[in-house]
Amino acid sequence: MSKSEKRQRDKLVKCRCTDAEYEAINKKAEAAGLTTSEYLRRTALNRRITVRTDIRMMNELQRLGGLQKHLYTQMQSNMTTELSLQFSEVLTSIKHAINALDMTPFPVEDMKD
């Protein structure tokens, strides 16, 4: 958005809503990565709004997998078969969790309140 478009937005629209409606609007705006104002503008003007799965969640899972792998390599000298199996199960579970994250955008209307 250019600066000239921002300058043109000088009208303020107010609306009343319940606490639940307010929370739902803010939750959907945050999930879409938009400000509340931009979310409401796009909704009112029938513009497209898409939400992506939380990328921070995926990054955290990758970080935990890296830490688990680091621990595995540090414990090589004291490794038992049972301990190795436990490390393998944890790494496999983390990998499945990362693969299960669907990074496909979906319409915000499909989000449950």
UniProtKB/TrEMBL annotation:
InterPro entries, per database record: Arc_rbn_hlx_hlx, MobA-like, NikA-like
Pfam families tied to this protein: NikA-like (PF21983)
The UniProt record lists the keyword Ribosomal protein: no
Keywords: Plasmid
GO terms (BP aspect): regulation of DNA-templated transcription
GO molecular function: sequence-specific DNA binding
Name of the protein this chain belongs to: Mobilization protein
Taxon lineage: Bacteria, Pseudomonadati, Pseudomonadota, Gammaproteobacteria, Enterobacterales
Name of the gene this protein is made from: mobA
